[in-house]
Amino acid sequence: MKRNVSLAEISDGRLYKENDMVKADCHGCKNCHLCCTGMGESIVLDPYDAWRLQKGTGKGLQELLGEGKLELHVVDGCILPNLAMNGPDEACSFLNEEGRCSVHSYRPGICRLFPLGRYYENGDFTYFLQTGECAEQNRSKVKVEKWIDTPGLKRNHKFVRDWHYFLNAVEEAVTGREDSEFAKGINMAVLTAFYFLQADTEEAFYALFEERREALIAQYDLKVQ
């Protein structure tokens, strides 16, 4: 989900890469899960998030939607799944009774990043530290790569970058004709191709993702940066 604000408003003014040290370590978030409540529709899943979540829970996307764990909403012109917030506290649907994440080992990328965010420019992205978002005041420095804790981070970086700019191209293609058959068709194609993707390994996931991304770019004549 895009945020149309300046970095000066929301960050420490620095941009980070995977090997940089950043003051993000929240020490296990002891007795705190504020960042897991009241997030609305903002925890949007990319296809890798959805694939890992389905592998980890043993449940398909349709089942997770039916159980109220996930929702579908329009994000910047695209229909995408997000984590559902439930109950009077608007708590993440995957929080357990102790207020801990029940899918922590395969939690979505946005959750892994926090309190970091991604800053996209010139066909790639770096990271920034969000200020005023995390309740922990005494965070420690940690290497960005270690904090994100994602297998094959270099390969995942390419995936995140390619997915972001692919979605930008889809958004541009549907702008001005959001209620058209074209928009409905491309949104259904994106959901079907990427969120119901069946792969046994990460290598297979990335290969299928790239194959389907190229196919949809050609099918809909998308202008990807």
Supply the key terms.
225 residues; alpha+beta; two-stranded antiparallel sheet; globular
Task: Write a structural description.
The protein is of the alpha+beta class and 225 residues long. Helix content is 39%, strand content 16%. It has helices at 7-10, 47-57, 61-66, 109-113, 144-148, 153-174, 181-195, 202-220; strands at residues 21-25, 70-75, 78-83, 85-86, 91-92, 116-121, 124-129, 140-143. It has a two-stranded antiparallel ribbon. It has a two-stranded antiparallel ribbon with strand order 2-3. The chain has a two-stranded antiparallel ribbon with strand order 4-5. Helix 6 (153-174) packs parallel to helix 8 (202-220) and helix 7 (181-195) runs antiparallel to helix 8. The longest helix has 22 residues, at 153-174.
| Adjacency order of strands in the biggest sheet | 1-8
> What does the largest sheet look like?
2 strands, antiparallel
Query: Could you give the distance between the termini?
Result: 18 Å
Structural class: alpha+beta
Helix/strand order: HEHHEEEEHEEEHHHH
Total count of strands: 8
How would you sum up the global shape? Answer: globular
How much of the residues is beta strand, in percent? 15-25%
How many individual helices?
A: 8
Rg (CA only): 18 Å
Strand and helix layout:
Blueprint: H1 7-10, E1 21-25, H2 47-57, H3 61-66, E2 70-75, E3 78-83, E4 85-86, E5 91-92, H4 109-113, E6 116-121, E7 124-129, E8 140-143, H5 144-148, H6 153-174, H7 181-195, H8 202-220
Task: Give me a quick take on this structure.
The protein is an alpha+beta fold and 225 residues long. Helices cover 39% and strands 16% of the residues. A hairpin with a 2-residue loop joins β2 and β3.
